[in-house]
Amino acid sequence: MKLSEVRDILKATVVVGDDKLVMEISDAAASDLMSDLLSNYQEGSLLLTGVTNIQVINTSLIAGITAIIFVRGKEPNSEVIALAEEHGIPILKSSYNMYSSCGMLFSNGLKNIR
Amino acid sequence: MKKEYEIKAKDFVRAGKASIGVQSILKNIGFQQDIIRRICICAYESEMNVVMHGADGTLSLNVGDKEIVLEVKDCGKGIEDIEMALKEGYSTASEEHRDMGFGAGMGLPNIKKNSDNFEITSQKGNGTHLKMVFRVNGNRE
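^ Those are the sequences you sent over. The predicted structure of the assembly is below.
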């Protein structure tokens, strides 16, 4: 699935990375726990989270997360946006909550990390 | 090759910079993704531990031919019960730390899991010293 399809399914807005929408997404994980992602994450996947502080970007860089969706209509601040931009990590935001977002992506064929 | 970074306690904006710096150095040297990932997970978890629990500290990276050594020292309050701290789920983190996505009691277990050798020394009131060793064998491109 392309990141642009993820955007359409979740009726999401692109915060950073309009040029990354062609990115291919093969699987996803959802968590608000950074240590969980560091422990179980697979490189190259999509992250759905409700945490919007700068550590989400740092965790993404360390864990190899390719793209981030902020759920529940959460807004990242300008420092978070700048760091994501600097490292080429696209950020999208959706007003759907975590459960609905995951359900919609899953039923459209996007699977859990292997 | 040696590099040392300062870590400031409670500086949540800069937290993570040392680990991202380590990642960049290791990528430039040409190590494989898997070992870089393991080292950086250890660096980042320990850096966050210092920022959350310690007083100021340092993170040093020493890249040798056979092994890479990562050392993190702080002059914080130390760990009272190391055995407990190494158990998954045990945490003394505050609500503020949990709101940021940390403090689930997975930091030290994560570090232990991702390093080839791991030593921790700490005394109440005398800070904490972590030494993590990673074998280079076959991990260079």
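The interface with chain A takes residues 12-13, 15-16, 19-20, 23, 33, 37, 40-41, 44-45, 48, 99-102, 104, 106-107, 110, 113 of chain B (CB under 8 Å). Chain B has one domain: 2-135.

Shout if you want it in another format.
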